[in-house]
Amino acid sequence: MFHQRLVRYRDRIRLINRWNSSRELTIAEDTYERRPMLFQFRLESVLKLRQREREHERQSAAFARKRHAEFIARRDTIVQKRLSVISELRQMNCAEVWVSDHVQRRQSHIEILNQDLLRAEVDVAIAETQLAECLKRLISADQAARALERLAELQSAEFRRKEDGIELRRFEDLAKPDRRVA
After folding, report:
1. Is 33 left (phi over 0), alpha (psi -120 to 50) or beta?
2. pTM summary value
3. Which of 69, 27, 58, 46 minimizes the C-alpha distance to 147?
4. Which of 17, 38, 54, 151 is the most buried (most CB within 10 A)?
5. What is the pLDDT of residues 158-171, one digit of tens each?
6. What is the CATH number of domain 2-175?
């Protein structure tokens, strides 16, 4: 819409220039100098800081996710080992001849795996709480950065509206037929 107005005013200036044949009444199109439309967000440094914090929290959350997945994988391998040792013990129990030394070793191995499984469960629980804390910090950092980004967008749009209004008024002033340029 603004571009259409701009084109209309430029055409109007051209018509005025054709009608006014004398030099002193001519409105030159190059008298209009467009100011550079530079928008500087006042809180740019704070926005950059918030974006860096958000990126840091993303990295720490990714690390926490990776660590959590590693602990879960470790717990799952311990569970699988424990189940395989239990199945071996059951097979020995079903066999006609079984050596008590082998059975004692398998039982002690199961006890060690049970202790490892408990430690692995604790590690998974700790990793889950750390992951939840990292995600909370990430959400708050993301909200802070998005709020400042939105503020920058709104201020930029307001700045553009003001600049467009100034530019439109300039063209209206240039397009007035009673204006004389000396």
Report:
1. beta
2. 0.64
3. 46
4. 54
5. 998 998 888 888 88
6. 1.10.287.1700
The tens digit of pLDDT for each residue in 89-130 reads 888 878 777 778 888 898 999 999 999 999 999 999 999 999
Contact between residue 148 and residue 46 where contact means Cβ atoms under 8 Å apart: yes
Q: Give the chain's radius of gyration (CA, Å).
A: 38
Measured CA to CA, the distance from residue 160 to residue 102 in angstroms comes to 83
- Per residue, the 3-state secondary structure of the chain, as one string, reads CHHHHHHHHHHHHHHHHHHCCCCCCCCCHHHCCCCCCCCCCCCHHHHHHHHHHHHHHHHHHHHHHHHHHHHHHHHHHHHHHHHHHHHHHHHHHHCCCCCHHHHHHHHHHHHHHHHHHHHHHHHHHHHHHHHHHHHHHHHHHHHHHHHHHHHHHHHHHHHHHHHHHHHHHHHHHHHCCCCCCC
Q: What token pair was written down for 76?
A: 């799952």
Query: Can you give the length of the chain in residues?
Result: 182
